[in-house]
Design a protein that fits this description.
- The complex is a heterodimer.
- Chain A is α+β, with helices and mostly antiparallel strands.
- Chain A has helices at about 5-20, 40-50, 55-70, and strands spanning about 25-30, 30-35, 75-80.
- Helix content of chain A is about 50%, strand content about 15%.
- In chain A, α2 (about 40-50) runs antiparallel to α3 (about 55-70).
- Chain B is mainly alpha-helical.
- Helix content of chain B is about 45%, strand content about 5%.
- A two-stranded antiparallel sheet of chain B has the order 3-4.
- Classes of the chains: A alpha+beta, B mainly alpha.
- The interface between A and B is large, with 66 and 104 residues.
- β3 of chain A pairs antiparallel with β4 of chain B, so a sheet runs across the interface.
């Protein structure tokens, strides 16, 4: 293989892309929304408790619920909507 | 030469098919419960009103009168529902089709925070006395199991969209800019979250019989606001729904019993 092959490949690809009509290139920007880390959530709960925004009982219950919910991530299922029902 | 030929055939094929798709996923993390409690507290004190951009004096007065009740109700909803730890993938703006699972798995950021950050934060929580030694060991073991599903968690992240505290605004709700410092960014996110809820309360009161669009403030940030976009797919750890079925947005507020890891 010629040592210039990679360079020629890049030049060819660039040329073809430049020749393509702009409508041929479509950008997609999906957005993933996800929970904070478990540690961050626990630290924020602790800070809220210390600032008086959360009682001791509420903190204890929330801490346990959060850990249980986090443990279940490993068994999560992926659900795909079947049809478009955009509002 | 063979590489050159392959590349030429691939490119011509892509062009011949009519398009080249460039998939650029972005990520946004939900606020923590502590952040939300702080936002409610700020709203109850009237501090974020500068964000509300309401010009009708009567409407502003009416909202201020109801504010204590709304804040009380929101706090009760927040702590009365279990925390949400599920991720969702949403279509971007102006897109003709949803992203598929295969596309996302190949090119997107992890659906959940990366392993290195998750581990670091677990150890910070342990150092703060919030996790026992046994709990830390168990959680780190589970994290290692979770990281075997690469679409769920990447080892680490270096993408620009992931800010230091994990909160970005691109593509959700119109705020395009990223504010410079983590503290400012977090404060801004808190205000946006609270502002969305205040408008929802106000709108629900204006229409007789109307209810809040999403009654659970534990839902991810995008869903706690108006349902402006369809999810492409979501990952719900607590879901007991059959694969392929689509739950109503309201039902996301009531995840099923946690599965045994």
């Amino acid at each position: 293989m010629s040592p210039d092959a990679p360079r020629r490949s890049r030049v060819l690809a660039l040329t073809l892309l430049l020749l393509a009509p702009p409508s041929c290139i479509r950008h997609f920007h999906p957005v993933v929304t996800r929970p904070p880390t478990l540690g961050e959530e626990l630290l924020s709960l602790d800070a809220a408790r210390r600032d008086g925004l959360l009682t001791e009982e509420e903190f204890t219950a929330r801490r346990a619920q959060t850990i249980e919910a986090w443990k279940a991530i490993g068994t999560a299922t992926v659900e795909v909507p079947e049809e478009d029902d955009a509002p | 030469m063979r590489h050159l030929g392959t590349l030429a055939v691939w490119t011509l094929g892509a062009l011949g098919a009519g398009c080249i798709s460039i998939n650029e996923p972005r990520a946004q993390e939900s606020l923590t419960t502590g952040d939300k409690l702080r936002a409610i507290e700020l709203a109850a004190r009237g501090e974020p009103w500068w964000e509300l951009d309401i010009h009708e004096p009567d409407r502003l007065t009416s909202m201020r009168e109801r504010l204590p009740n709304w804040c009380q109700d929101l706090r009760a909803r927040l702590l009365g529902n279990p925390p949400s730890m599920y991720a969702e993938l949403w279509e971007g703006r102006h897109e003709e089709r949803p992203t598929t699972v295969a596309e996302y798995a190949g090119r997107g950021p992890g659906l959940y925070p990366p392993v290195d950050r998750e581990r670091t934060d677990l150890r910070r929580a342990h150092a703060a006395g919030l996790l026992s030694d046994a709990e830390l060991a168990e959680l780190e073991s589970l994290l290692a199991e979770q990281s075997k599903r690469p679409a769920f968690r990447r080892p680490s992240e270096a993408r620009e969209v992931f800010a230091e505290d994990g909160i970005t605004f691109g593509g959700l709700g119109g705020d395009r800019g990223i504010v410079s410092t983590p503290d400012t960014r977090r404060t801004h996110a808190n205000c946006r979250w609270m502002r969305g809820w205040l408008f929802d309360y106000a709108n629900a009161e204006r229409v007789v019989g109307a209810e809040l669009p999403n009654p659970d403030p534990n839902a991810p940030m995008a869903k706690s606001q108006r349902p402006w976009r369809n999810p492409s797919f979501w990952v719900d750890p607590g879901s007991m729904a059959e694969p392929g079925s689509m739950a109503e947005p309201g039902s996301m507020a009531e995840p099923g019993p946690p599965a045994t890891p």
